[in-house]
Amino acid sequence: MLDQTMFKANDIRGRVGPGGLWDADGARVLGRSWVQVLGLVPGDRLVLGRDMRTSSPELSRAFAEGVTGCGVDVVDTGLCSTDGLWFASGFLDLPGVMFTASHNPGHDNGIKFCLSGARPVSASHLVELAGVALAGSATVPDGVTPGRVESRDLLPDYTAHLHSLVDLSGLGEAPPLTVVADAGNGMAGHTLPSVLGGLPIRLVGLFTDLDGSFPNHQPNPLEPENLVDAQRAVREHGADLALVFDGDADRCFIIDERGEVVAPSAITALIAAQELAREPGGTVVVNTITSRSVAEVVQESGGTVVVSKVGHTYVKAVMAEHDAVFGGEHSAHYYFRDFWRADTGMLAALHVLALRAREGRPVSELVARFERYVASGELNSTVADAAATCDLVETAFAGRGTVDRTDGLTVSGEGWWFNLRASNTEPLLRLNVEAVVGSQMESVRDEVLALVRGTTTPDLLTNGA
């Protein structure tokens, strides 16, 4: 069972099982189809990982059967975070396949793909995969010897590589930092003991048991209600900061010592300034809805900003094209050239911990100079026709600012800007507004929402991918 709607712009994602979009038989077909799309031949290899969702073992095993049936070998890393899979692809120089639905509900599952060396797949790869899989046209060579599955634990190598990229020596100074880490019952519960467990910090773990039903809160730190537990724990323990991960642990939100959420754009600016100090004149990639403060900080630091469309496949491609040292998205995806240009929330967390220890100042002070604008947060609406709605809003704002249609609709006026774009993963239209003055942000926000929702069903959420 496979359904066209599960194929998204950057990955595969959808409900599994009866009443859903795909099942193990579909995953087996996808395995054969992916071999054909990549042009793999008997004796080639790919690396496979999975998250803690209840459907992941069966789906990943079926996918591996589809691959090995074509004579291609599978290196199975078992449970791993998505950035752990990117590491495996880079470390082994093999194409990678990760079974996860990231922050989606527990009944969903999905697949993220990469080429060898953690290079991004293109939209054409996914379009071709959908065509081959839905048509059932992938063939198995006659007389082929089935490939083998090799199990390999790469978590120690992943940990060693992350530690090699950040100077953590300052963490050994007294008093040790108290760090809350909310795994949300996701894959951070698997990686945290290895990456942070041996560091000289006091670690307060929340929901570190792997549980794909997500009994405590949904694994999406972009939703404010999913940050409440970590905020409370910071205040209760007098912690220096908190780290909140999404389901597949490739994103990380930071909460300061007051229990206040730090905007991902501020973290992007903070790390960008550090990376540019290490590599003067370097390039930093942002997406179309990253705060304008990031571009200002990069320019002040002597670097160059390049703007990408939203989504990890787009950002990685731009990172490679411009040999960028770092990249950051509004959704707390952070990309590092030294991590095969892939996104890793855990490495971003280590950078923040190292800077906090080295500077000896509270996180709120470290990020204060990067928080220059008032932002709406991401506001979502269900619409019948995203393109027509964007056209309507563009017409209403004609003559009031510059217009850019690179990724949805961006209108920039005097002291304000907004972006309105269709989600890559959900049937939603996402609005982000930023302005110098709060009242100005609210005015633009309310006007755009009134236009968007005048003929649609309101569905106010916050943030997504």
UniProtKB/TrEMBL annotation:
Needed cofactors: Mg(2+)
Record's keyword annotation contains tRNA processing: no
A GO term for molecular function: intramolecular phosphotransferase activity
One Pfam family in the UniProt entry: PGM_PMM_I
Domain of life of the organism encoding this protein: Bacteria
Alpha-D-phosphohexomutase C-terminal domain location: 405-450
Taxonomic source organism: Auraticoccus monumenti
UniProt keywords, alphabetically: Isomerase, Magnesium, Metal-binding, Phosphoprotein
Family: Belongs to the phosphohexose mutase family.
Statement: the UniProt record of this protein carries the keyword Isomerase: yes
GO biological process, one term: carbohydrate metabolic process
Residue span(s) of domain Alpha-D-phosphohexomutase alpha/beta/alpha: 6-126, 157-259, 267-373
Name of the protein: Phosphomannomutase
Signal peptide stretch: none
